[in-house]
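ok, trying the design again with the full structure, not the truncated one.
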């Protein structure tokens, strides 16, 4: 199939390409927005873990009662 080289044909081709690019941009925007939300949650979790380590308290899922006493006891 040969491309339509008339001005009207070229305009239709450009409109089709533009519509495709617009749809692709919206899809990419959704992906970036989703990734940004995941990154925000991960940063929050890392901050929580860093605070836990700094304060020396047991982290989530650990049971301090099952740890052996320190050597000086």
């Amino acid at each position: 199939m040969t491309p339509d080289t008339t001005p009207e044909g070229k305009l239709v081709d450009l409109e089709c390409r533009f519509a495709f690019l617009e749809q692709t941009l919206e899809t990419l925007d959704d992906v970036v927005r989703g990734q940004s939300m995941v990154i925000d949650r991960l940063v929050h979790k890392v901050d929580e873990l860093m605070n836990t380590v700094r304060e020396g308290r047991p982290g989530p899922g650990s049971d301090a009662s099952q740890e052996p006493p320190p050597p000086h006891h």
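Keeping the full-length input from now on. DSSP finds one helix and no strands in the chain.
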